[in-house]
Structures are given as C-alpha cells and as structure tokens.
Amino acid sequence: MITSEDFSHKNQWDVALNIHELNETGSQEFKSAKYLSSVLKSRGFKVTEKYAGIPTAFRAEKAVGQGGPTIAFLAEYDALPGIGHACGHNLIAASALFSAIKSAEKVHNARIVVIGTPDEEGSGEYSGSKILMANRGFFDDVDIVLGSHPGDSWDVGRQSLAVQDFEVTFTGTASHEAADPDKGRSALDAAILTYTGVNMMRQHVRRDLNVVIHGIIKEGGTASNVTPEKAVLVYGIRSSDIKYHGELVRRFSKIAEGCASATDTSCKIREIGPLFTTTKINPALSNFIRDRLVGRGAKCPSLEETFSKQPGGSTDFANISQIKPALELDFQIADEGTPWHSHVSLEAAKSIKAKKALDLVIEVLSDTAKKFAEDESFREKIRHDFLTNSLS
User: Fold this and answer.
1) How much of the chain exceeds pLDDT 90, in percent?
2) Domain containing 373: what range?
C-alpha cells in the first residue's frame, strides 16, 4: 500500500507484486497510478499526473544528454473485474517502469518516457485509453513505442484482432402475460431472435479472416408474468481484417434491426469504447528483439512463425502500432496452453517464472532503446519498415 515511504529502493519485482495486490479495475486504478508515479519520481523522472485528462493516466519523462529520439514505454495496470491480475498487467507496469529506468542509465542522448495507459481491458469509462490519447495527439512527439505482455510463449510479432464492442437495447411494451398478452411486445423476444440470428451468421463468414463473435444477454425482464419491455445484449465482434470487420458490423446491425421489426419493438445500438484495430508489424524491430531474446536463452520463434499463428486477442496497443513504430513483446510466464484470464494465469502473474521473465524483458527492451538512440541506421530501418511494411 502507498505510504510516505521512500520509493527509490523499489525494484521491478516489488512493483509487480504491489500492483498485483492493489488489484484495481479499469479507470479506477487510482492507487496504482499514484504508486507507479511515486516510483518514477524517486528515480528522477518528471511526472505529469491525470495525463490527457484521464484521471488514472500519467506521463513520466527523463531527458538524457542533449537531443536524441523520444522513446516511450507503455504501462498498463488495470485488473480484470472479479478475478484480479489474471492478464498480468502488474508485470506490464513493472516492465515499462524498469525498462525506462534501465534505458536512462544506458543511453547517452535520448528522452525516455513512460506513459501510464489505464483500462486496456475495457471495463470502465476510459476503455482503450491509448486510442483516446492517440486521437488527441498525445503520441505525436514520440519516435518509437515499446511495450510487453505476459502469456504462455515468447513472441515478437503476434497479430491482434480488430474488435468493437456493442450494447444493443431493445424496447417493447409491458403487459400482463395472461390477462392482456395481445397488448405486450416482448423486448426479450427481439433479443433472443437477434442472438439466434447472430449464431446463424457465424456459419456464413470468412474463415481465413479469424472472425470471432461473442455475446451475452445482459438483461431480459424482471418478472415472468410481465412482458419484458427492456432487454439488453452485449456483443464483441472481432476479425483480423479491419475492412471485413466493418462488413461484419453492418450485418450484425441489420440482424438486430430486423429482429426488432419482426417483434414490433425498437432497438438502439451503442458502441462500447473505441475500435481496437489490428497490429502493424515492424520486421526490423521484431527481428532485433528476437535476436536478443534468443541470445539470452529464450525460446522465441521467428517473426514468420509468430505471424502465421492464429491471433487470439485484441489490444489498444495495436492502434499505436498504426501511427508509430511499435512493438509489444510477448513473454512467457506460464506453460504453453495455459488459459488466460483464469485463476491459473492469476497465480502465474506473481510466480518465480514471471520474475525471471520480467528481468529478461527489461534487459532486452532497454538494450533496444539504447540501439535506437545511438544507431541512426537502425532508426532508419525501423522507419522504413513502418512506412512500407504490409504485415498488418
């Protein structure tokens, strides 16, 4: 917990365990943000709190030498509702802080930045905060963005799925189900029809574009003898192709609207949070980091092998990769096949295996920052790949 103690002696594992214990969900990470800011201040970073107008965001920076590129590390620190840090964002926070701290010790001329980006999991008001920041120009002065994410394998070019979440609210007419059934119009019927229609849609989508559609009936009535006048569905629609994702959304909307019409109800479709896009891969950056990982004993597949894997998740980090050279390093803290967002991954996020992996990630990312700061040809290769690469 946060006290008036001296934070300068805190190491990466202290930070990882403390954030794991704080266990704050998206847009509510007040103690976590204050704690992380305090650690950075103790290491000589200038910290701006409530960055970009987001209460639990921050930006910390330290200028080293004269001039040089701006290198940003992104911290996440939101926990999952109901289960805690089962996605390992406590490790992402520790990685970002100490990769930056280490980088500031290694480089000669650069500006080292940590940006605290809340609510990656999309559970609060500032869901997808990286996108909110990017859309308002808060990454404009950054030359490269580095991040990390724990999982069940090492990877340097994993693709992500575009995703948009929706809330669909149906409005009908309440009535007594026995005395006046003819006067009722069931919002729940509309919701069930939509749920069934979307299930049918799943058969008729492109398999090569990794379509994933998942949803729940959030609300469906209050009493069995009253026609439900309100029903709510929540859906997520994903694809590895951003253009096709738009087509899926169009079809989804038509299903909901058609089912409302069929049941003589009305519907309102609302986007929940911003659109998370697909990841733009930077081969020069990915291959450099992979070589450093393999050289230190990590079993990290080639970029081509990683990119050929079926993508399984979504992140707002992907949106940053579309506007700046960026890489989110996946690091292994659990056995392959471990289910994520589970009690197993929750324990893995504070395991000895995670501690060792975290140390390696910090060394490799800070080496990458040093290389980028001091090698103009390396910077040019990364810029070239960002402008020309079609792996996205």
Assistant:
1) 93
2) 12-160+278-388
